[in-house]
Each structure stands twice: as structure tokens, then as C-alpha cells.
Amino acid sequence: MQIVIYIALFQSLLPLLYYGWIRKKIIQDSKPILPFIILCFIASLYEFIFTFTLYISSTIWFYVYDFLAFFTIQYFFYYILEQKIKKIVWGSSILYLFLFLYIVLHHTRERFLNSISFLGVLTTIIIIYYAITWFKITITEKAYSSLTQSSNFYFVSGFILYYTGTIILFLMANTIYVNQREFISHYWMFNIFFNIVHKTFLLVGIWKLQKQLTK
To answer: Is 83 left (phi over 0), alpha (psi -120 to 50) or beta?
Structure first.
């Protein structure tokens, strides 16, 4: 199991490394995904060094990562949707900030897993809305003969698969921890699996950008 965790951590480093390798060939429209890729790289290093090597509590990091993930994802969708969702972005950002501040200010050890799941639910709902909007606009405008030609298709699909695939796990995490604590690591493998899938989609999306430019 530990080997799988290290594989997932290493894979989270690859998108930024690959992006850096082909950065001169990447078109400007792809750059909105860069902040999230950088976050993945930082998260992987942090978790390897501080969580799995130095055994430092990851509670604060969970909050920081969730906060940064939400806004880097919003940044990505804001630009691929050509700023057509400005009001939604402002509204969801304010809602998230209020919920985040409330949860942090009322943080307790017992509520931690539930708190993270609430933030995850909001993020998942926002991603689903943005994804549906992107698919609708892209298909309506017939920007591509096939959606698989678009790198954004892989980025958007990766977000959907990860967040919808893990939301039930996060909602049940506290119950699992309280009632079946000895099996929590086994349940957490679902999160690792979807994390690997997500990073694979990121890599494919970046590769697709290079492929488009070298045709």
C-alpha cells in the first residue's frame, strides 16, 4: 500500500515537470491550468517530506490545499469559458470564503473530516456546473470535430472524475474513522486511485497540447 502512495506522490510531480519540458511549445490558452499543476507539485513535495517522512500533522495542510485547489480550479474554468461565468465565479468565491472561514474558526478535531467533506461538496458542485457549461458551449459552437482533440477535454474530465469519484468517500470519512478506524487506510485507497487517474488525465492533456502543435 505504501508503494502505491509513493507512486501517486511521484505522479503528482510529473505534470509540472512535463509542462516545463515542453513549455516553449505550449499555446497561451493552455496556461490557465498551470497554477493547478504547480499546486499538485507543491502538494506532492509537502506530503512526502512533512507527512510521510517527518510525520507532521497534515490538518493545516488539508485546509490550505483545499483553499488553493478551489481557487486554482476556478481560475482554470474562468479562462477556458472566456470569462462568461464572471458572476458565478464571484458568487461561488464569496460563498466558499464564508464557508471556509466559518469551518476554520470553528475547527475541532472531531469535526475536521466532516468540515473537509463540506468544502469538497461545494467544490464538486461548482466543478460539475462549470464542466457542463464548457461541454455545452464547446459542442454547440462545434469548436472541434471531436472533443478528444481538445486538451481542455482531458483537464475538465480529470476534475470531474476525481471530485465526483471521491466525494462519497469524503462524506463517509468521519463515520469510517469512528466505526472502522483500522480500515481507514483501505478505504483511502479509493482516493489514491482517483488521484492517479486525475494526474494521468493531466498528463494526457499536456501531451495533447504538444501533439496539436507538432501536426
So the answer is: left
